[in-house]
Amino acid sequence: MTNRSANEIAIVAALRQLRRGEVVAYGEVARRAGLPGRARLVARVLAHSPVADLPWHRVLRADGRIAFAPGSEGYIEQLRRLQTENVTVVDGRVRMASVAGKLDALLWASPPADE
């Protein structure tokens, strides 16, 4: 991908924004890049990007699972990197915060008590 498209540039920029210990789904990266519904494009960019040091290990399937086959070299490396960042991985899965759950909490939470 030497001649990078605007979509690839946006995806790489969204990936660079991920903080240490933050994990997101491919679809969330696409949404942050302004490309909702393009999770597969994110996967392709990660698989073929010549850009060094992308935090690829912070990107998981929507259900929080590592996308590599269990026991594969990629799986072991992603697991190692996540654990180095203190991300808890149980049976190849990370418990991911639900955006919908956060929105519900904001919408339906009791108003703060007057102090």
What attributes characterize this protein structure?
two-stranded parallel sheet, 115 residues, single chain, 2 strands, Arc Repressor Mutant, subunit A
Describe the structure.
The protein has 115 residues and is mainly alpha-helical. It has one domain: Orthogonal Bundle (Arc Repressor Mutant, subunit A). Helices cover 43% and strands 3% of the residues. The chain has helices at residues 6-16, 26-32, 39-48, 73-84, 99-108, and strands at 24-25, 59-60. The chain has a two-stranded parallel ribbon with strand order 1-2. The longest helix has 12 residues, at 73-84. The model has no long low-confidence stretch (mean pLDDT 87).
